[in-house]
Design a protein that fits this description.
Elements: H1 2-20, E1 26-30, E2 37-45, H2 49-57, E3 69-74, E4 81-90, E5 101-108, H3 110-121, E6 126-128, H4 133-140, H5 146-157, H6 161-171, H7 174-199, H8 208-228, H9 233-239, E7 241-246, H10 253-261, E8 279-285, E9 288-294, H11 304-318, E10 322-328, H12 336-344, E11 354-359, H13 368-375, E12 384-386, H14 395-410, H15 423-442, H16 447-465, H17 471-478
Parallel strand pairs: 1-6, 7-9, 7-10, 10-11, 11-12
Antiparallel strand pairs: 1-2, 2-5, 3-4, 4-5, 8-9
Helix pairs in contact: 1-2, 5-6, 7-8, 7-16, 8-15, 15-16
Length: 485
């Protein structure tokens, strides 16, 4: 009892110190995800982190910064032991958020975690963190820019190797450094232009300065234009390539979906027209994300429900990044023109890449040779593979074709300049490019208006990295983070 009273008194003294540090609030949350686990990490950030750690451990002396220490963790209000775990102290600004931070590594049982959270919540000046608030504080204190923060969010959500590589590259600041270099170039060009406007009449600024500004703007406009023409590689890799399985009824589209995802995701029936709605699954193919959609058989339907299914299939087909055109290998003509006509009857978008899948290959028997010969006779057909959804024959070749096409669409996330990953990046860059183009148009008639175009272009670049931003943009970015990050 004496020990509990002493610990309780120590907790009250630490709580008083918390109140004295009330110039800013201190947040806390579970950072290791929810659910039963071996170890749970609970973190705090803010001016009350030191006193909170002292209060829960009952020790005035903190371990050295960034050094794990074994401590018994108690409820400051009652002195009751909650767990025995590791604690870490991060003194600002050498921390993730730039503030004083603490972490408690405790056993991941629900009772232990909830007990520690209750103890922290009872301390004055501490409150539960909002989603993404730790990262938002890191941004506010200049520990990372918005592109790095978005990369961190993508890294947490990454499900494939390629997504992880792209997100890690962005989180480490490559994309932000590229945009910052462009912003610095614009700042220098704008400074030279304004100096020319203000001082050219006094002969303090040479005439060639204006030519240098023009050359800089032209080069930057070309560089941004090339960056925008990336085929949406970064966005496709981040969100997944949308592939649509399309074909006539009863050719094995749903069987193909089930074969690829290795589970009965779609109903399979010998009755034509079974699939009415779109069935969607997410897959990892060769390290690349694939969002695969099974659709209704494409035909002139008379049933109103099937008509709606065909309409949805057509709509999904028009938005596809990749088409898997499934045909019955026993029914297609064994000559190139006929194969092309069978594919054309599905009306895939002309610019969308396509893979032809000739299903039911196990029923071909001796006719496969003639089909192979037809495919090799030089008629311009997309990549083609034979498949049997019944036996699995040809699946490896189809997966290889898929991986090859996904690699072409998404690119190598580690090579070349970093890719655009967010639609908001594209929006601001396009508006920046428009402003630069208008500078070139207005530069001959009004230098003051031309300078304003450069300022506008610089503001759009700053909006990407967060150096020029508004609260609503920040809310959109950080609300998608999990609590504790």
């Amino acid at each position: 009892m004496a020990l509990r009273r002493a610990l309780s008194a120590a907790g009250r003294r630490c709580a008083q110190r918390l109140c004295s540090a009330a110039w800013g609030d201190t947040i806390f949350a579970v950072s290791s995800g929810h659910g039963r686990c071996g170890v749970a990490v609970i973190r705090t950030s803010g001016p009350g982190s030191r006193a909170a750690l002292q209060s829960l451990t009952g020790r005035p002396a903190l371990p050295p910064p960034r050094v794990l220490a074994l401590r018994r963790i108690r409820d400051p209000a009652t002195g009751e032991p909650l767990d025995r775990g590791l604690v870490v102290w991060f003194q600002g600004p050498q921390s993730f958020t730039g503030e004083d931070c603490a972490e408690l590594h405790v056993h991941g049982g629900p009772a232990v975690v909830s007990g520690v959270l209750r103890a922290l919540g009872a301390l004055p000046g501490l409150r539960p963190a909002e989603p993404g608030e730790f990262t938002r504080r890191a941004f506010r204190r200049g520990k990372l820019d918005l592109t790095a923060a978005e990369g961190l969010g993508d890294l947490i959500r990454a499900e494939t190797e390629a997504q992880r590589r792209q997100a890690l590259r962005q989180m480490e600041g490559e994309l932000g450094r590229l945009y910052q270099r462009w912003s610095d170039t614009l700042t220098q060009a704008l400074a030279h232009l304004e100096a020319y406007i203000d001082f050219s009449e006094d002969d303090n600024v040479e005439e060639e300065v204006l030519s240098q500004v023009d050359a800089t703007v032209r080069a930057l406009e070309q560089e941004i234009g090339s960056h925008l023409q990336d085929g949406r590689r970064g966005e496709l890799l981040r969100g997944g390539v949308r592939a649509v399985i399309a074909g006539p009824p009863n050719v094995g589209k749903s069987s193909l979906l089930n074969l690829l995802c290795q589970r009965p995701a779609a109903i399979v029936s010998p009755v034509a027209g079974t699939t009415r709605d779109v069935v969607e699954v997410a897959l990892n193919v060769g390290g690349y994300p694939l969002v695969l959609s099974d659709t209704a058989g494409l035909r002139d339907a008379t049933d109103p429900v099937e008509q709606e299914g065909v309409s949805r299939a057509r709509h999904r087909l028009s938005e596809a990044d990749l088409v898997l055109a499934v045909l019955d290998a026993t029914a297609v003509p064994a000559e190139p023109v006929g194969l092309g006509a069978a594919l054309g009857s599905l009306r895939p978008p002309p610019t969308t890449p396509c893979i032809m899948v000739l299903n039911k290959a196990d029923l071909l028997k001796g006719n496969r040779g003639s089909l192979h010969a037809a495919c090799a006779r030089g008629h311009p057909l997309p990549p083609l593979t034979f498949l049997s959804c019944k036996t699995g024959e040809g699946l490896d070749h189809l997966l290889a074709l898929l991986a090859q096409e996904l690699a072409r669409l998404c690119g190598d996330p580690l090579s070349g300049s970093p890719s655009l990953t967010q639609s908001r990046h594209s929006l601001h860059l396009r508006q920046c490019a428009v402003a630069l183009a208008r500078y070139s148009q207005e530069r001959q008639s009004d230098l003051g208006l031309a300078a304003e175009r450069l300022r506008l272009a610089r503001r759009h670049l700053g909006s990407i990295t967060g150096h020029v931003s508004t609260e609503d943009v920040l809310d959109i970015i950080f609300r998608d983070f999990c609590v504790g990050k």
